[in-house]
Predict the structure.
Amino acid sequence: MEASADPYSPYDGGGDGIPLRELHKRGTHYTMTNGGSINSSTHLLDLLDEPIPGVGTYDDFHTIDWVREKCKDRERHRRINSRKKESAWEMTKSLYDAWSGWLVVTLTGLASGALAGLIDIAADWMTDLKEGICLSALWFNHEQCCWGSNETTFEERDKCPQWKTWAELIIGQAEGPGSYIMNYIMYIFWALSFAFLAVSLVKVFAPYACGSGIPEIKTILSGFIIRGYLGKWTLMIKTITLVLAVASGLSLGKEGPLVHVACCCGNIFSYLFPKYSTNEAKKREVLSAASAAGVSVAFGAPIGGVLFSLEEVSYYFPLKTLWRSFFAALVAAFVLRSINPFGNSRLVLFYVEYHTPWYLFELLPFILLGVFGGLWGAFFIRANIAWCRRRKSTKFGKYPVLEVIIVAAITAVIAFPNPYTRLNTSELIKELFTDCGPLESSSLCDYRNDMNASKIVDDIPDRPAGTGVYSAIWQLCLALIFKIIMTVFTFGIKVPSGLFIPSMAIGAIAGRIVGIAVEQLAYYHHDWFIFKEWCEVGADCITPGLYAMVGAAACLGGVTRMTVSLVVIVFELTGGLEYIVPLMAAVMTSKWVGDAFGREGIYEAHIRLNGYPFLDAKEEFTHTTLAADVMRPRRSDPPLAVLTQDNMTVEDIENLINETSYNGFPVIMSKESQRLVGFALRRDLTIAIESARKKQEGIVGSSRVCFAQHTPSLPAESPRPLKLRSILDMSPFTVTDHTPMEIVVDIFRKLGLRQCLVTHNGRLLGIITKKDILRHMAQTANQDPASIMFN
């Protein structure tokens, strides 16, 4: 056999220009080129005839090695390309490999769309179940029940004989105090039942199914491994409990958790394709596309979904992933549209069409709504994080079921008397967004009509508010206070809970109140100079629904700090294409105001609270420290745990592994020279030694371990040596001790490194891990460095 040279592709490691070598050598012979001109062919032991199973995989709660995964993928791609001309079967395999990316995102889109449609339909039906039941067809919700009825009137289109409230069924009364109390009791009973069932299922079967899921998905996409977080049990329980949580009336939404559901689908389907199942970096490309599909079905906003994935959740987003995200979002939206869960032939519940343009003067109230959104965002993040931290540090956190029951009970008791809080939150937003046309019977549209207006036109002129509007405003003010308080305590409890819809509801309530105020101001003071130019008597100048839409966007922007994707989501959501400028003004204002109180959004705050190792690309590192200031070991620490190239035994290495908890060890030529050879991972060492003991005869505790190319000459009676050069990373990333930390942080962010070795004139000095960087950043920001708690 001839010695064949492996093609290594050079990779710029932040100025170090070290050639990368792939980690699994393919045959028994290979040529090693060590950055110079030394070429030598070496025969490895039969241990390396085949790759050691398990080497190159990762433990739970560890970070992936992006560079290694990219090398593995390039090597796989070269192998397939070199073989494809050998036979028709190899050609077919090559085509299958090329198309597998599109196949996996198609399947993810189909599954996400179908599950979203199912969740929408089930949540609507169970929400209405709290108030009554359809006797003619039990599976119909309230609206569907009255569609086919001939006895409905225009004013009371939601009342029909087929729909029975619980009071009618139990005590036979439709009106009166007895009926009200009975309906109240049944509402609380169903709300508590749904909440209890949801939290019990989460606690027993899938603890990872709670919360929104977006902070964890951001962390997973940055290269962290949380086993089971995107598994089939989590998917199944999250889908069921999401319906129950929304139906229980808690102040939460289903939009954030739908991103988690879509990512679970993407993860499960990626296991059908070896290209993705064996490579963690490639799998994250599928998850980026899946998160786009999740937002696409959550809001009916395919383009907004792609931008959300790019702006908010993805860590690594190549152009190929952009196209696949776009395709996944398209497929998911198409499936949802085919299911038509809302019965309005739209992708969303609150599609609106306004007919009046907006005027320049209105930018002032829009910017004020942006300020409100930023203040609400800053308040919510601080209050919610303080409450979640308290939950973690006190006994209260040990009783998640009790907490959910208490929150659900308080929510149900306070929500029922107020018609705006009793409504499903999505329905409430729909009502607040809707413009008052001639066909609206809501009390928000109870204006005093002008008797001179002889014909009904599409654009109804601005009119004085009637008693219904004033009482509605009072109810909305109470609903606003209720929503603000309850959302702080609800986000983070142990049921699936999204934040998009409650934040939008708070903004929509505030916006509608402001809109009505501006409308009345324009009606009574149309001779003021700001109104005189464009608002004549009898004209329709102000659209209160538009203010609700702008307020919703501003509040959601204040909490999440999204900008571009949020504006696109809102205009896709509502169809309000000509209102992009007001939306942009409000969203940017809310971001600036929110950033004045703290730079991080709610998801970043929860990532930090949970101690996930996440390096946020949006954060700037401005301190003038050097690599030597951050590296370990420090002066007071014991010396760095290292392996030597060829004078340690198997027993020495096993002792070192048992005595320490480090994830890897630098390999040096000798203790005297401290010259760096490479880096060996703890997991790979453990697996390789176990495998050698099982498969090779003569490997004992006193066997010499050799990381060098040539085995040193050993006495004749000594046991057989163990060669572990194949598991050694020959080109670990190194920086000198005088490298500014600003550059080191950039290298970690852009290459997704786990660790970086620090050298001085080629001698090993220390090591910097991702955790060290996070601790150092916490210290420079005067935070507790011990809050970085995951291994």
Observations:
- The CA atoms of residues 207 and 234 lie 8 Å apart.
- The radius of gyration is 31 Å.
- Confidence is low (pLDDT under 50) at residues 1-49, 453-458.
